[in-house]
Design a protein that fits this description.
Elements (H helix, E strand, L loop, with lengths): L7 H8 L2 H6 L2 H5 L6 H10 L3 H10 L4 H8 L3 H10 L4 H21 L2 H9 L17 H15 L5
Helix pairs in contact: 8-9, 8-10
Length: about 160
């Protein structure tokens, strides 16, 4: 069995953040072109527009309750953010984490539809949890990234 490279998903994002930017709604929603990690970092610190949250949810078929759990945002807080049309920096960072992993799942699995299905299905390698249910913490996200890396490199998962 061949060892997996460290930071498989992070390395992919470091070289080309375009898929994540697109998952977040692209230029149309972000309001400007974001072509580098540094530009994306600044956009996260400013707070993403609420439309980015809707774009990720629509693209990967994530319902309101699942989104609330993955982002650790109660529904009343989400309603306030929708009215303000802006997420806070920490909320934006959590949305970035979700978009980053969902975009990587789409790349590894071949389509957004397959990624959406995979994110929602219980996974034996994750102890029967769905990948989406683990994205509420960095540790859970790392576990999901590891499984995606194993899938990409053909290691039984």
């Amino acid at each position: 069995m061949r060892p997996l490279p460290d930071g498989t998903i992070l390395n992919a994002i470091m070289h080309n953040p375009a898929d994540v930017v697109e998952a977040l709604g692209g230029r149309r929603i972000l309001g400007r072109k974001v072509g580098s990690l540094e530009g994306l970092r600044h956009r996260l610190k400013e707070g993403l527009p609420y439309g980015s949250l809707e774009a990720v949810a629509r693209r990967f078929e994530i319902g309101p309750e699942e989104l609330s759990a993955a982002l650790r945002l109660p529904s009343r807080t989400m309603a306030r953010r929708k009215r303000a049309d802006r997420l806070l920096a920490d909320e934006s960072d959590r949305l970035f984490r979700l978009a980053r992993i969902a975009a990587e799942a789409a790349r590894v699995l071949g389509s957004e539809e397959k990624a959406a299905r995979w994110l929602h299905e219980p996974n034996r390698a994750l102890g029967g949890d769905t990948p989406l249910s683990l994205l509420d913490t960095e540790i859970g996200a790392r576990r999901v990234e590891e499984i995606l890396g194993r899938i990409e490199y053909g290691v039984f998962s």
